[in-house]
Fold this protein.
Amino acid sequence: GQLYTSPDQVTKKYDFIVVGAGTAGSVVAARLSEEPSVQVLVIEAGVSDNGTDSDIIYVPLLVGTGVGTILDWNYTTVAQSGLNGRTIDFPRGFVLGGSSCINGMIYSRGGSDEYDRLATVSGDSGWSWKELQQWNEHHTPPWNDRRNIGEYNPLVHGFGPLATGLTPTVFETEQRVFQMTDNRPELYPFNLDPNSTNGLGFSWFHTTVGTNARSTSGLAYLHPALNSCSNLDVLIHTQVTKLIEMETNTYTGVQVAQSATAKHFLFTASKEVILSAGTIGTPQLLMLSGIGPAAELSKVDISCVHDVPDVGCNLQDQNILAIQWEVSSPTLLMFLSNETALRAALAQYAGNKTGIAAGNTVRVVDHPDNWELDVRLNCPTVAHIPNPFDHPVIDPAYLQTSFDIDTYVAAIKTLQTLMSTPAWDGFLLTPFTDVANLATDALIEGYVRKFASTLKHPTSTATISKSTDKGGVVGPDLLVKGLKGLRIVDASILPSAVAGFPQAEIYILAERAAALIKSSRL
Ligand SMILES: Cc1cc2nc3c(=O)[nH]c(=O)nc-3n(C[C@H](O)[C@H](O)[C@H](O)COP(=O)(O)OP(=O)(O)OC[C@H]3O[C@@H](n4cnc5c(N)ncnc54)[C@H](O)[C@@H]3O)c2cc1C
């Protein structure tokens, strides 16, 4: 197929239009194009994933550096009263491949209960673990001679297009974690593989790194389909600005433009528009099209065509906080702050794709000697302003409930206990700065409000629910309730924050969605 960079290049007629070539959108588009009789167009607001900055995407050691660049929408939250009035950067991928190009690459499917909850909430057993576990990635060996026998379970990996693997370089922190699981398995259980039915326990990290480069939804799904199928076209640098009602209640048209002042174009799909613009983009686009909560829409002078109160509400996110200790041995942080060593590592990678740059080191890169905490939050509101090219108003309302704070306090206390086990003897020296003072609940709360931030896993702004439920935005088939021709396939439909890392669930969700569309529309 064709990769277009401007809407005036697109002249064909399409059966399906996918909005957003992100994590989910790339999967759906590639799967639909397997059927030669249908024509598929994907429209992506962001940039190419093969541009001059593409090292940021693909070199594993550069994980995290895409945030704040041209690959990022660069959203910011409104001031968060629960975080002492701070605003928080809220990154989302603005590139073919979406957030799978800039994320932290950690891959864990989550436990079976995660999927069974989706089945219960939607009233469709097709969303249960039993049915969904068939969609899988494939495990790749590391570039070096690290043997990973006993460190993962080959039986819970498969043959899907996405590549994952264990990190090739093992750090002292990891060795000590597993010593801890050896010493006190009843308290700190070893989990052979976080992709099994059990998502809990201490496991080796699986990352979306193939043998030596990041695997994205673009690389794993969209590019191979684009290269091999003439019935799939992709248009980048082009934002969908409005969904168009082509017949009563039937939203099979999209209006697009490259900037607020550029010419606007209309593309129509003979079968469906599939909205995969993500947790922020999807509700924003629905609301711009008059599909959303009437009261919110009237505040921004958009006439409400379909009053769907849950659009843009219920935003959930996970939270992160660094707890640091001074340590006795050199860490990766020292390596990363040594420019000569870093340059040499990147040169080695450029030469033959080996060396420390060829492996994901996300945990130690971000926070050398600490642990990360996930806290589920109860969050309202993604609102927006009418110009589609303005950023939406994002208010995750972090840490506004006692549940959030109580969870943090409990988590930090657990961590303090855990780090005082013998496995850390001789390695941890003193807690770093403020961490030394976390002796009471009140002091912990003060620390949390000062330093907590987003883990960048927002979901649930266009939630799935049973067909008979009044609430929610989509039914179990992911069609927008009460409308025709409009389906949502991305993180926004998840009923609540994922108990783990979301990308695996989003790839799986998109695989089943594509299968559903094929069986109902082809
Ligand atoms: C910095 C960061 C770190 C993360 N770390 C991890 C991790 O380690 N492990 C993990 O599991 N998850 C992680 N995540 C979360 C995970 O990457 C996301 O949950 C997931 O990729 C979201 O998939 P999606 O398909 O819903 O949206 P996205 O992948 O964001 O795709 C949405 C796409 O739609 C496009 N779009 C939006 N609006 C429009 C429009 N109007 N017109 C056309 N195109 C549009 C966007 O440009 C984007 O390409 C991280 C996320 C970020 C940002």
Summary: Confidence is low (pLDDT under 50) at residues 361-385. The pocket of flavin-adenine dinucleotide is lined by residues 19-25, 43-46, 67, 91-94, 98-100, 102-106, 239-240, 276-279, 281, 285, 456-457, 490-491, 501-503, 506 (CB under 6 Å). The chain has 14 helices and 22 strands.
